[in-house]
Write a sequence for this structure.
């Protein structure tokens, strides 16, 4: 674990840089944030947003891992990749600009596949966030993180759609609670609000449990109507990547659209979910990674990581979905 | 990523984005994120304007800026940094104020879309009017801490930014500040006023001396004792604080004695004030000794968060006065200093003064860190919220380009999911308010003021510019055609110090006001009143005020108790915008909304209670009501 300086004191330089956020979440939260070591796997558009938000916030260290080479698409979604870096490794190509965001954070990058990440490697981190990855990769990594007590996050943006999942295992946090207090004399009563800090505890479940839902069960059968259709987009895309070992490709749009609809039909039938739950139109808007969606999902995800490592405020347990049609960001609680 | 990669968007949208000319107003927290999203999405024709330069406290979120850019123009550095994300984009930057006359209606007409990434209401009001005048869709945004909001304004289709009255900033009664402070904020406000009295632009409303005309002390001993010294307004007549201090060469010891001893003695002589209050304790320079204890123990806190001893306050008081005196003397004759939270001596001065005064009145002392938040009205901003808001702005922009105006929404970012599991809550855009004094067909507004006291200059500066947000107004008395105020420099200077009554302006007189830059005509009806708190009051809807006054009067009759009406205070739209984690605004979450509405109906509240509640909501959520 790489630490710099005296861990319990925040220098005056840091105080000046982080002034606004210390006013918002307090010095203790900032200290815990500064003690955290984050691994971000996947230097895609969503990964770039998460990386930006965490490096600006002032984590202790952040490592970027990706095995891919830079494509043209990367240079228009991962804004850390300079436009002349095609064929370089995307994680390494991002490094310089990420470090420039905040010299106080120890930023490193490495060309690695998810499957190459061993236990020993993982154990140096307090947070792991994987952007992209197959259902199996996410599940395996999540389970390993559980063994080491590492906070785990997984997310992805598909075109105009995005989601993330979080597993904080057994998480304790403090939360501000506002209580009304009456002050002043009886004839000019003024009620003011007093803020109290309350300790809370919340348990999470792993991705593999959360994502496997039996929609024929009584519990989930009745919940189906209120469940966001975005979940089923995620199911379809996981199935697509399982079958084809890749994401839907904008340059093969026609064939991939047909394949996605075929997968949708068989998958929803298999899950006993009516076809009408997910409109076929979704295939029109799931190609590439649209930047504003990365910004929205990466913003909420980044804030969740900040909340989790600083032990402040109630976490979102356990899924967040963003859909472009109405601009809603929905929090779902699956698998319990 | 978007238009550069074939197959992500359809061709229509690609062409609309390519040919879209967008104006980004503000290159701060939201602006930086917005520029990044725009160039990555494929917007290639962007102009950005910002007056500001880069400060170190921006760097934790305004990610287009780095340490070496501190002091440089935000719009210029933002342009350079954003271009690296997409070299194909064209960005024009202006280091300038958007309110400047160079940016008239024809400037706005060049754009397809205007996106606001602003942090103040004055500029938002102005851009709102310019976009209405140019008939260009405007995407408005705001963030505060964990909360954010994005909305769309289109002339004739949606509410404009000024359709609903915004909560006014909380002010404190003069007597509380000058005579009977009871909270830290009262001492901080007093200290800022003192700064202006000593070094800044003096304002009669910011007197810091004891107020002998305190209604609690009518005609009592204190006033009699010093009657010879006070003028007709009740202020103790001591030339001016500035001249007094200047004649003593800004000697910190003498200023200290005057403020914290003599003035406090005077307050004590107003004995009625202290019958139910803890009386203040006058303080002399030598009343306390040096002590070192305060700074050693709290090592794990940052410097500004460590409490100051009284001796330390005195030391800082003395040093900051010396520094500020030097700065003032370095200026041209007649120039003055401007209080700035980021100027160390200004902050030191206010921290020391407010803590010494707090001690005298038995009020809790505050650290320099906390005083800075309160004195500087700091609304903490963070990267994540700004990123989310900027993402939502572009998504609304894409909807407009797809000609799906009917699908545009106001979207709120909440701190927690609402009962409908939503963290981001879309709400249907409201229709324009037909009585809006900005966007309606024939804008009209009523203003309560005292025609026997208000000067033409005050009408221009405080009412038309300050209150009604005009930039360079012309005002003509309706009927007589008298030109009261002209935007031509010098033309009506002779009127400046005259009282409105001198122009036969009485209750009901109408002024035809015109702002050429904003292409805005407004008919102002004057409502004469001798008792207006804070010089004047803008009454959005004249008829409604009358009705409310009548209702309040009837209520008063019924209850036999004095109550004041709050014009516009209980208006639905007003309450809705200051709402953060429930749904009463949201038309599409109809069940929750109905539940809320029921709840509100079933709790008849006396107007006094609802008024306090309102103020609290407002001060707390002022922020998200962009
Ligand atoms: Zn309006």
């Amino acid at each position: 674990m790489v630490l710099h300086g005296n861990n319990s004191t925040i220098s005056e330089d840091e105080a000046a840089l982080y002034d606004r956020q210390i006013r918002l979440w307090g010095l203790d939260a900032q200290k815990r944030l500064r003690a955290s070591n984050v691994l971000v796997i996947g230097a895609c558009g969503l990964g770039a947003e998460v990386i930006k938000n965490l490096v600006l916030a002032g984590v202790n260290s952040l490592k970027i891992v990706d095995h891919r080479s830079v494509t043209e698409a990367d240079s228009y979604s991962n804004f850390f990749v300079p436009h002349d870096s095609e064929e370089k490794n995307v994680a390494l190509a991002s490094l310089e600009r990420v470090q420039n965001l905040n010299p106080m954070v120890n930023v490193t990058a490495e060309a690695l596949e998810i499957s190459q990440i061993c236990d020993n490697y993982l154990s140096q981190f307090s947070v792991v966030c994987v952007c992209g990855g197959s259902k199996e990769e996410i599940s395996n990594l999540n389970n390993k993180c559980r063994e080491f007590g590492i906070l785990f996050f997984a997310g992805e943006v598909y075109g105009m759609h995005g989601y993330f999942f979080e597993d904080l295992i057994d998480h304790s946090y403090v939360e501000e609670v506002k209580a009304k207090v009456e002050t002043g004399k009886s004839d000019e009563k003024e009620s003011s609000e007093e803020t109290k800090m309350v300790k809370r505890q919340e348990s999470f479940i792993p991705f593999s449990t959360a994502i496997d839902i039996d929609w024929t069960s009584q519990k989930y059968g009745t919940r189906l109507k209120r469940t966001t259709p975005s979940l089923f987009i995620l199911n379809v895309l996981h199935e697509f990547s399982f079958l084809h070992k890749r994401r839907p490709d904008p340059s093969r749009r026609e064939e991939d659209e047909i394949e996605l609809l075929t997968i949708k039909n068989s998958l929803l039938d298999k899950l006993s979910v009516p076809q009408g739950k997910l409109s076929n139109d979704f295939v029109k808007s799931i190609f590439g990674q649209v930047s504003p969606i990365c910004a929205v999902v990466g913003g909420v995800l980044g804030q969740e990581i900040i909340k989790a490592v600083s032990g402040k405020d109630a976490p979102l347990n356990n899924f967040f979905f963003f859909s472009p049609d109405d601009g809603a960001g929905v929090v779902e609680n699956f698998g319990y | 990523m978007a238009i550069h990669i074939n197959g992500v968007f359809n061709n229509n949208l690609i062409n609309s984005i390519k040919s879209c000319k967008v104006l980004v107003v503000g290159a701060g927290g939201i602006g930086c994120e917005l520029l990044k999203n725009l160039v990555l999405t494929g917007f290639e024709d962007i102009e950005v304007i910002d007056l500001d330069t880069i400060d170190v406290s921006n760097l934790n979120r305004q990610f287009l800026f780095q340490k070496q850019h501190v002091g440089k123009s935000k719009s210029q550095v933002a342009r350079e940094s954003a271009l690296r994300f997409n070299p194909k984009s064209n960005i024009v930057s202006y280091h300038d104020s958007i309110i400047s006359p160079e940016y008239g209606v024809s400037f706005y007409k060049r754009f397809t879309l205007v996106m606001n990434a602003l942090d103040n209401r004055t500029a938002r009001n102005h851009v709102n009017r310019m976009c209405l005048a140019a008939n260009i869709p405007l995407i408005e945004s705001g963030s505060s801490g964990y909360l954010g909001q994005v909305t769309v304004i289109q002339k004739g289709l949606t509410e404009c930014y000024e359709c609903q009255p915004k909560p006014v900033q909380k002010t404190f009664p003069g007597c509380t500040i000058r005579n009977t402070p009871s909270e830290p904020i009262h001492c901080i406000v007093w200290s800022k006023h003192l700064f202006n009295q000593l070094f800044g632009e003096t304002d009669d409303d910011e007197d810091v001396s004891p107020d002998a005309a305190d209604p609690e002390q009518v005609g009592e001993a204190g006033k009699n004792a010093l009657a010879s010294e006070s003028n007709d307004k009740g202020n103790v007549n001591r030339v001016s604080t500035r001249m007094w201090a200047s004649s003593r060469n800004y000697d910190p010891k003498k200023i200290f004695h005057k403020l914290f001893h003599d003035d406090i003695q005077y307050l004590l002589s107003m004995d009625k004030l202290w019958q139910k209050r803890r009386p203040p304790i006058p303080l002399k320079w030598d009343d306390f000794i040096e002590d070192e204890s305060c700074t050693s123990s709290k090592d794990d806190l940052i410097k500004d968060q460590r409490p100051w001893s009284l001796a330390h306050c005195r030391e800082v008081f003395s040093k900051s006065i010396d520094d500020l005196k030097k700065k003032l003397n370095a200026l041209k004759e007649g120039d003055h200093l401007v209080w700035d939270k980021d100027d160390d001596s200004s902050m030191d001065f206010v921290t020391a003064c407010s803590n010494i005064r707090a001690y005298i009145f038995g009020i809790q002392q505050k650290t320099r860190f906390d005083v800075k938040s309160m004195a500087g009205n700091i609304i903490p901003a963070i990267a994540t919220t700004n990123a989310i808001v900027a993402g939502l702005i572009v998504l609304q922009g894409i909807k407009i380009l797809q000609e799906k105006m009917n699908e545009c929404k106001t979207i709120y970012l909440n701190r927690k999911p609402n009962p409908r599991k939503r963290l981001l809550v879309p709400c249907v855009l409201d229709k324009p308010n037909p009585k809006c004094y900005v966007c309606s067909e024939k804008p009209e507004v009523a203003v309560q003021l005292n025609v026997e006291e208000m000067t033409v200059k005050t009408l221009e500066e405080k009412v038309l510019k300050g209150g009604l947000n005009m930039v360079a107004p012309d005002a003509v008395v309706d009927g007589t055609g008298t030109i009261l105020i002209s935007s031509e420099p010098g033309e009506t200077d002779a009127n400046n110090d005259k009282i409105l009554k001198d122009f036969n302006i009485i209750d009901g007189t109408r002024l035809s006001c015109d702002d050429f830059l904003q292409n805005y005509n407004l008919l102002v009806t004057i409502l004469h009143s001798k008792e207006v708190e804070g010089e004047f009051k803008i009454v959005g809807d004249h008829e409604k005020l009358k009705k409310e006054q009548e209702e309040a009067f009837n209520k008063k009759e019924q209850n036999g108790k004095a109550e004041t009406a709050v014009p516009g205070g209980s208006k639905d739209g007003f309450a809705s915008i200051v709402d953060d984690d429930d749904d009463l605004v949201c038309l599409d979450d109809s069940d929750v909304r109905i539940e809320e509405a029921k709840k509100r109906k079933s709790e008849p509240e006396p107007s006094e209670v609802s008024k306090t509640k309102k103020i609290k909501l407002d001060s707390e959520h002022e922020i998200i009501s962009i």
Observations:
- Chain B touches chain A through 73 residues (CB under 8 Å).
- The longest strand of chain B covers residues 520-528.
- Residues 90 and 503 of chain B are 53 Å apart (CA to CA).
